[in-house]
Amino acid sequence: MILSGKTALVVGVANKNSIAWGIAEALLREGAKVALTYQNERVEGRVRDLAKSFDPELPCFQLDATNDEEIATTMKGVGEAFGGKLDMLVHSVAFAKKEDLAGGMVETSADGFKLAQEISAYTLISLTRGALPLMQAAGGGSILTLTYLGSEKVIPNYNVMGICKASLEATTRYLAWDLGKHNVRVNAVSAGPIKTLAARGIAGFSSVLEKVEEKAPLGRNVTTDEVGNAGLFLLSPWSSGITGEVLYVDCGYHIMGM
Ligand code: NAD
């Protein structure tokens, strides 16, 4: 098992359909010790149940990623659970107001723009900063975030989130540059569309799934397991020479021009 003896913090599990859960399952399968977070009490029960389905002792922490105190408390708890060291961090977090994921881009409010950027892009920086001392203690680390094609191509209704993903991908590269000296790598998986809680907030999401099935070279949509396995690759020593990269896991959809 490639990750035996390694430790991971996975941020962004809401339920069993979450991409973060697909990644957590892949990490657990390969022998990693995993800690999960839940955003608030509303999802706590579901996340704890998923954790227990693997290991009743699996650490879970409440973490709103925009709350610096909760980041500090989580990293302290992770340090205590994992002997002061952390090898891997998964950032699988995004949010925009429903009204900013439909209709005219020109209607986007300043508040909606700032909120979406803070949660969907800035939190990669704040979580990385929180995890860095534990990764330095481990002699290095690997960080993974989740992005989408809407960062570089227009996907109708994805609107403000497309801008957030462009910002997130640039953040991935700048963090990779900054943290290479600590032997910390930072990469992103650009996943094809998957029916999750977050995806349901995007107007017309089902038609996106249909388009991919119709046009992607593999003629289908990706599964959470496939994204989990690609995430595992980027988080593990198998990808030790890769940093600042965006890896598409979308059945090839992004290569198509027509
Ligand atoms: P999801 O709803 O299962 O996960 C989104 C997570 O973000 C949830 O766990 C939610 O609690 C968390 N979150 C939102 N605001 C937060 C905050 N302030 N603090 C902490 N956590 C917060 O949906 P998902 O599709 O698994 O999304 C995970 C990531 O994958 C997102 O970045 C999303 O943009 C990206 N992604 C999704 C798709 C897709 O089609 N589902 C495709 C490409 C990329």
Summarize the structure.
With 258 residues, the protein is α/β, with parallel strands linked by helices.
How does this model look, in words?
The protein has helices spanning 19-29, 41-54, 68-81, 110-137, 159-179, 197-200, 205-215, 224-235; strands at 7-11, 33-38, 60-62, 88-91, 141-147, 184-191, 246-249. The radius of gyration is 17 Å and the shape is globular. By secondary structure, it is an alpha/beta fold. The protein has one domain: NAD(P)-binding Rossmann-like Domain (Rossmann fold, 3-Layer(aba) Sandwich), CATH 3.40.50. A seven-stranded parallel sheet has the order 3-2-1-4-5-6-7, with helices on both faces. Bound molecules: nicotinamide-adenine-dinucleotide. Nicotinamide-adenine-dinucleotide (NAD) is lined by residues 12-14, 18-20, 39, 43, 63-66, 92-95, 119, 146-148, 191, 193-194, 196-199.
Features:
8 helices, binds nicotinamide-adenine-dinucleotide, Rossmann fold, 258 residues, alpha/beta
Write the layout of secondary structure elements.
Blueprint: E1 7-11, H1 19-29, E2 33-38, H2 41-54, E3 60-62, H3 68-81, E4 88-91, H4 110-137, E5 141-147, H5 159-179, E6 184-191, H6 197-200, H7 205-215, H8 224-235, E7 246-249
Parallel strand pairs: 1-2, 1-4, 2-3, 4-5, 5-6, 6-7
Helix pairs in contact: 1-8, 3-4, 4-5
This protein binds nicotinamide-adenine-dinucleotide.
